Amino acid sequence: ADVAAGVWGGLVQAGGSLRLSCAASRLTFSNYHMGWFRQAPGKEREFAAAISRSGVRTYYADSVKGRFTISRDNAKNTVSLQMNSLKPEDTAVYYCAADRVGVSPSTPTMYDYWGQGTQVTVSS
């Protein structure tokens, strides 16, 4: 299976917005819960957001709640992360991932497939 992040992150000023998208292929997309994680330099990979197979349930880390919105389009096999009111501490490499089981959306080891990551840099 391939999970690839598209929309390549980029550089944005604090307070700005950015939308990340991730396309999946060679898997039955609607059978997978999807998540976004991020990893800043020198830090462990951390959970940002996740969405259930149908899109009905969403989960967010406290640090992004109210600013980030995760969504999915099962017809297009894509999951997106709309990031608003960005802060310098949001700077990280962002990864999308696919989870077949979905029992612990915030746990990276529960995910089966990972995209290659995309850099997001928020300047102050």
Summarize the structure.
The chain is mainly beta and 124 residues long. 0% of the residues lie in helices and 49% in strands. It is built from no helices and eleven strands.
How would you sum up this structure, described in words?
- This protein has 124 residues and is mostly beta strands.
- It is 0% helix and 49% strand.
- The protein has no helices and eleven strands.
- Strands 2, 4, 5, 6, 9, 10 and 11 form a seven-stranded mixed beta sheet that branches. A four-stranded antiparallel beta sheet has the order 1-3-8-7, with no helix packed on it.
- A hairpin with a 6-residue loop joins strand 4 and strand 5.
- The radius of gyration is 13 Å and the shape is globular.
- 36% of the residues are buried.
List keywords for this structure.
11 strands, four-stranded antiparallel sheet, 124 residues, mainly beta
Largest sheet: 7 strands, mixed
The end-to-end span amounts to 38 Å
Number of strands: 11
Low-confidence blocks of residues? none
